[in-house]
């Protein structure tokens, strides 16, 4: 069997100590990368990324994804320079436009998200290329700044910048300006067909094609020999996403009536009782449609569908036993 690209996704479902063990195990089993989420007001991405970088030898470590609103551009570039010092040529910057109502609730007005993202990528690239940067944009205004390396490598850093895009216009922009797209999860494989068309449209503005872009994809993965238990574990997560992240709910194809019903039950932060109560409104076939859920064979078959529709590297988010999921997709 030829080796296939596969990556691990971690959020806040496991302790950091367990997360380190899962990443080390995934590295042993041939996984190429681990991506650390930065989602609700829970765990940030940078601290776990540093922990993973310091305790592994070859696996790549990506942010999946941080937002482009809450970190000053100089600090953002310095942060990824620092991570690259810890794990040279193993760091990936995944960045996204964030989402409401969370952004609004912490005082961020996400105006002109396309321009804001374009400016962020432009300045970030120049800084990581170790250039002296003066830039007078609408969102970023910097004057003669550059990354100051006292200890370590002074040459340009190899940190790919990937955009986690959901909307059509951001998807096109991603094709134009990024090194790749972190395709969203909680969507069916069919979602990728349109996504690739939009990425290709943007890529052509730069004389590229969609094939020139890396396209890793987050995939909720619930593996259990007990199929019913696998579905239950996936449903627990998906219920929260439908309730709390409207952009994902919309992309997943859930009807508005169901979304509103679930949102009326699940608060923020959600309690276990609220999630358990709202889960009954999520049908099993919906879970199976938008995630890789079921027995090991079923999960592998579903991941292959995402590959067949344009995903270059599945980023698997374990819902059940993480070791069992890693073993299911082991490459070594």
Structure characterization notes:
By secondary structure, this protein is of the alpha/beta class. It has a domain at 7-219 and 310-328: Alpha-Beta Barrel (TIM Barrel). 45% of the residues lie in helices and 16% in strands. The protein contains 14 helices and 12 strands. The strands form 2 sheets. Strands 1, 2, 3, 4, 5, 8, 9, 10, 11 and 12 form a 10-stranded parallel sheet that branches. The longest helix is centred in the C-terminal third of the chain and has 18 residues, at 227-244. The chain is globular.
Number of strands: 12
Overall mean confidence score, pLDDT: 94
- Report on the biggest sheet: 10 strands, parallel
| Low-pLDDT ranges | none
Key descriptive features of the protein:
alpha/beta; 332 residues; ten-stranded parallel β-sheet; TIM Barrel; 45% helix; two-stranded antiparallel sheet; 16% strand
Secondary structure topology:
Layout lengths: L6 E4 L5 H13 L4 E4 L9 H9 L5 E4 L2 E2 L5 H14 L4 E6 L5 H4 L7 H16 L4 E4 L4 E5 L15 E4 L3 H10 L2 E2 L9 H13 L12 E8 L3 H18 L1 H7 L3 H10 L6 H7 L5 H7 L1 E3 L1 H13 L4 E6 L3 H7 L4
Parallel strand pairs: 1-2, 1-12, 2-3, 3-5, 4-5, 5-8, 8-9, 10-11, 10-12
Antiparallel strand pairs: 6-7
A few lines on this structure:
By secondary structure, this protein is α/β, with parallel strands linked by helices. 45% of the residues lie in helices and 16% in strands.
